[in-house]
What we know:
Layout: E1 4-6, H1 11-22, H2 37-48, H3 54-68, H4 73-87, H5 93-102, E2 115-117, H6 126-149, E3 156-157, E4 160-161, E5 173-176, E6 183-186, E7 196-201, E8 204-209, H7 220-232, H8 250-260, H9 264-275, E9 279-283, H10 291-304, E10 321-326, E11 331-335, H11 342-357, E12 373-374, H12 381-400, E13 401-408, H13 414-418, H14 423-439, E14 445-450, E15 459-464, H15 467-476, H16 483-505, H17 511-523, H18 535-541, E16 545-549, E17 557-559, E18 568-574, E19 579-586, H19 594-612
Parallel strand pairs: 7-9, 9-10, 14-16, 16-18
Antiparallel strand pairs: 1-6, 2-11, 2-17, 3-4, 5-6, 7-8, 8-12, 10-11, 13-19, 14-15, 18-19
Helix pairs in contact: 2-3, 4-17, 6-7, 6-11, 14-16, 14-19, 15-16
Amino acid sequence: MFLKKITSAKYGAQLFQVVFRQGVRSLSVPAQPVPPLAQTLQGYLQFLEPLLPADELEHTRELVRKFGAEGGLGETLQKGLEKRARSSHNWISDWWVKWAFLENRQPLAVHSNPAIALPKQDYTDWRGQLLFASKLIAGVLDFKAKVDSGSLPVEFMRGQPLCMELFPLLFSSCRIPGPKHDYVYHYSQSRRPPTHITVVRNYQFFQLEVYNSNGTPLTQSQIHDQLCRIRSQSWKTDKEPVGILTSEHRHTWGSAYNRLLRDRINKESVRLIEKGIFNLCLDSPVMRISDEKYSSRMAAQILHGGGTYSNSGNRWFDKTLQFVVGEDGSFGLLYEQATAEGPPIATLLGYLLEYCEKPELVRPPLVPLPLPKKLYFYIDPEIKRDIEHAKQNLDILINDLDISCFTFRKFGKDFPKQVNVSPNSFIQVALQLAYYRVHSEVCASCDNASLRMFRGGRADFIRSPTNQTLRFIRAVDDPSVTREVKLDLLKKAVEAHSLLTDQALRGQAIDRHLLGLKLQAIEERLSVPRLFMDTAYGLATHIKLRTGQVPANTDSVLCFGPQVPDGYAVCYNPQADHVHFSITAFNCCEETHAETLALTLDSALCQLQELLQPAS
Length: 616
């Protein structure tokens, strides 16, 4: 069987083959540029200025000067990157995927996999759950058909076509644990692509064929009949939650994975889960609490399953796409980032929600369907111990996660637009102000910028804070500073962030370039440059405020865990007249508290509105 395995240096070329064979319709997009060395080094120093005291900054300036000197190490590495760019599909994406995801040994649950909580559906029992889930499956298959046929419309940003290469990779793909780094397998590239999805309920996994013998997808009614059969075969038992194993530290899961696959039945079941087009998780209801806290609980439920006594056993965290449909109307998506990226996921979900609003028009053919196949696991004492340890570790991680989701209703993205400022940059300045008010300092923070305007592009960081932001933050609460001066400083802070955003979207941000220079040194078997051993670089990469905007036309919210133990993750989705936020922190850090930052952010947004609102 031909199988496409994608990892490390071969990622770009194989990615091109995958897309070519799938026939995704795409317009020509340019290669991603390597930014000028001097520009990146200058941008790096500018980023450090608000964060470092003068003496430390001067030390780093000297390191940067030596690194970037004519004929120096930086120039040598830059030439290596430029040569790499001429001979590769994308000079940084394969390195980035391996460094950021596949070599990261932290658990995928909370630390890596983002969750998207979608609007609660209008049903409250298992009957409504299965009806909605059947339509959801039909919608995903309809979207996949458009991807496979090349009829999915090319997306544009700022008038430029975007790279569409990630879309075929979303389906039938899975991350596999390895001893030193993980791998991603794309089973859709086999000679006989998978025709099934995996449905999991009450910790029990089922192979559900979703195509008829003639290759047409099952209708919604057919899928519903099959889901009813799965329900009748998956009553609560003392089944071991094998899926919990995928939530472990990657080394730990890798060892357990090898033990699990020693048994032939286990190996067959695991392979069928990995090969499935996607996973459908049929969850029991989210534990009811106050309406005010329900959105936070629902986001947490999709992110990690709610714990080992709830729905965490209904997950296979290595799987690229996992749709979660709860019995109480909760609904969302959990995805694995080595393959998936926020903007393509938003496109998929937007299509899906529109599809679910349409009535079913196709009448089911009168043909018998094979029973869904239950996947069995042989649990020996060793695997039993692995599962027990995984349960303990996941519950510890879940109890450590502090999460606060809320909707800011005083205004949305329309208000900043009305006063001619970027909504995203406006929110970013408000976030910096809120963080400063809680912690009396600014910190290294970042926002994601898509690089899909380039062939094989993934994402880079928009770095904060800027000098302009720091000047505004220090002035805004100073009663001796006039309103006019504060307003001018606010506009300059927003404009500075907007310029960095534009720079990142054009492939000219600093983070991927600096990473590339470091990895190029390793590639050439050189010592890691002193620039990257400097405490300032450690500070720059210790991102205490990790933010993410995945704008969507629905009332959804993205959610993931902080990047560092003493940090936050803040996600937001601006709508016309309101903004959805999710904030996470870790309880193990006494200094961070998600709800405190949420309340402070609410206050900061209101204050910025007052500054920008024209006087009556």
